[in-house]
């Protein structure tokens, strides 16, 4: 007796799921960029005076579904906010940055029902970005762009005390033999229920480096962003 068509489909789906190399993620990292630092590294121009989104990264998998193409029409209602909060600092009129983030990270985040469409993925990233409100919190506690230097602990303590979690703070050296590191990237982490989480838990997202959006996760490039040195003064460059 032959198997019914619905049962065959069920068994095929089960086999595909079991064979999938990408596990369900435990943590997502909301990554913020400081535009002045990034553009000093990449020779772009930005007059943005607030922290912008870089991405929402699950801790397991990259490029999980190459056939799931980015479609800007599916997030058309989000585009005005995307352009403001999640801008492409290198190509302001292009969607290539969002396309890259979707292909590399969004298709993996989509293993969760809460993020299983392009609209869900990008809208959740924007929601978390506004929930964290990093620019306002730093400013509220006196951490503002300045020509003076901060200690690493001053910045970390503000974030850690306000959100009650440990962030991942990354810096870059903008010139050789400089006496300070430039604040460039701050990661805030969430569990699968989007509750705040220490970034050191279930770690799967690595150091970010420079050379454009498409190589920002290339840990072999030591000239880009790295976890800040705790003993080196931190420069939080004013926007130009």
TrEMBL record:
Keyword Signal: yes
Domain of life: Eukaryota
GO BP, sorted A to Z: rRNA catabolic process
Broad class of where this protein is predominantly found: endoplasmic reticulum
Statement: the UniProt record of this protein carries the keyword NAD: no
GO CC, alphabetical: endoplasmic reticulum lumen; extracellular region; lysosomal lumen
Location of this chain's protein in the cell: Endoplasmic reticulum lumen; Lysosome lumen; Secreted
GO molecular function, one term: RNA binding
Similarity annotation: Belongs to the RNase T2 family.
Protein name from the UniProt record: Ribonuclease T2
Organism per entry: Kryptolebias marmoratus
């Amino acid at each position: 007796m032959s198997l019914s068509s619905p049962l065959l489909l069920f068994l095929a789906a089960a086999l595909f799921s079991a064979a999938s190399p990408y596990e369900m993620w435990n943590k997502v990292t909301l990554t913020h960029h400081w535009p002045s630092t990034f553009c000093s590294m990449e020779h772009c121009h930005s007059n943005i005076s607030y922290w912008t989104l870089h991405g929402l990264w699950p801790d397991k998998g990259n490029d999980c579904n190459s056939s799931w193409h980015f479609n800007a029409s599916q997030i058309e209602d989000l585009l005005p906010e995307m352009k403001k909060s999640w801008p492409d600092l290198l190509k302001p009129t292009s969607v290539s940055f969002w396309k890259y983030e979707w292909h590399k990270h969004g298709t993996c985040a989509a293993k969760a029902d809460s993020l299983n469409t392009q609209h869900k993925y990008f809208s959740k990233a924007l929601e978390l970005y506004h929930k964290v409100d990093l620019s306002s919190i730093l400013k509220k506690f006196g951490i503002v762009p300045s020509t003076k230097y901060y200690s690493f602990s001053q910045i970390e303590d503000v974030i850690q005390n306000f959100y009650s979690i440990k962030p991942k703070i990354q810096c870059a050296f903008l010139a050789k033999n400089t006496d300070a590191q430039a604040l460039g990237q701050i990661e805030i982490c969430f569990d699968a229920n989007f509750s705040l989480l220490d970034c050191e838990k279930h770690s799967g997202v690595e150091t970010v480096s420079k050379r454009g959006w498409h190589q920002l996760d290339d840990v072999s490039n030591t000239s880009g962003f790295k976890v800040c040195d705790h003993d080196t003064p931190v420069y939080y460059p004013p926007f130009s």
